[in-house]
Write a structure and sequence with these properties.
There is one protein chain. The chain is mainly beta. It folds into 2 domains: 32 residues; 223 residues. It has 2 helices and 11 strands; from the N terminus they run H-H-E-E-E-E-E-E-E-E-E-E-E. Strands 1, 2, 3, 4, 5, 6, 7, 8, 9, 10 and 11 form an 11-stranded antiparallel β-sheet that branches. A hairpin with a 2-residue loop joins strand 7 and strand 8.
């Protein structure tokens, strides 16, 4: 009888420890893999809905404020930017969007998409059409770590900090202009490449991801974050400073093959 009681207690202890692994509402009730093991790996972004607010100042200017909404699916990209009472929407095609988390606490992100915009200024027999195609490649990397029970309504390892230390955004632009009169048109092509690179200290550009679901091949997070960027431009004649601030909130769903 004593052996049976001990066996039952052992089973209850094991069951209790396994159930304790459930942190998010959508987590499995029982999992034999640690939470870090389930986060680790390559994840494809299925959906991403993000809202951002930003502001900035620079030497000799009155500053600026704005907001944006961004919606991403496995194949489509859409962003509406509003500043100064004017809204502009950009749409595009997504070719790849992945995050990779390493168990030891580093991560990488690669996002590739293409946008196209056509502006038609033709009038009175004149043809003036400009088509702009931009191929975007964004790569980021940084560090991540589980958070403890920070708030009263959160659990240990339910949230994770995701800090960006390096970001590179390469844009390859192709501008096709068709210009002429009476059908006699000339087509001119312009191409250019711009590269934006940011390097930050850990925890200066950080987001907090609340993981509401973490299953074998599915992860759902509610993310919030903010960042500040300061820069100084100096020439022989003058020096100028600029500061930009941004905050965001996002709902992101991931899947694995």
């Amino acid at each position: 009888m004593k052996k049976l009681t001990k066996a039952v207690l052992a089973i209850l202890v094991v069951a209790s420890s396994i159930t304790a692994c459930k942190k998010g509402e959508g987590d499995p009730s029982i999992s034999l893999r640690s939470r870090a093991s389930r986060v680790a790996g390559e994840w494809t972004v299925d959906t991403q809905d993000m809202k951002s607010d930003y502001s900035g100042t620079s030497t000799g200017s009155s500053g600026y404020t704005g907001s944006s909404t961004e919606k991403i699916t496995p194949t489509t990209y859409s962003m509406t930017n509003t500043s100064g009472g004017v809204s502009v929407t950009t749409t595009g095609i997504v070719s790849s969007h992945k995050y990779t988390f390493e168990k030891e606490g580093t991560w990488t992100h690669e996002f590739n998409y293409t946008t196209e915009k056509t502006q038609d200024d033709s009038q009175s027999g004149f043809t003036d059409i400009t088509k702009t195609t931009e191929v975007h490649t964004i790569t980021e990397s940084g560090v991540w770590n589980f958070l403890g029970k920070v708030q009263a309504d959160t659990k240990n390892k339910e949230e994770m900090s995701v800090s960006t230390t390096d970001m590179k955004h390469v844009t390859v632009s192709t501008i096709l202009n068709t210009f002429g009169f009476g059908g006699n048109n000339t087509v001119t092509t312009y191409s250019s490449t711009t590269t934006d690179i940011n390097t930050d200290e850990p925890n200066s550009n950080v987001g907090v991801w609340k993981i509401t679901t973490l299953k074998n091949k599915e992860m759902i997070v509610e993310a919030v974050g903010k960042s500040t960027f300061n820069s100084t431009t100096t020439s022989a004649a003058s020096s100028s400073n600029s500061t930009s601030n941004s905050s965001f909130s996002a709902d992101i769903t991931f899947s694995q093959e």
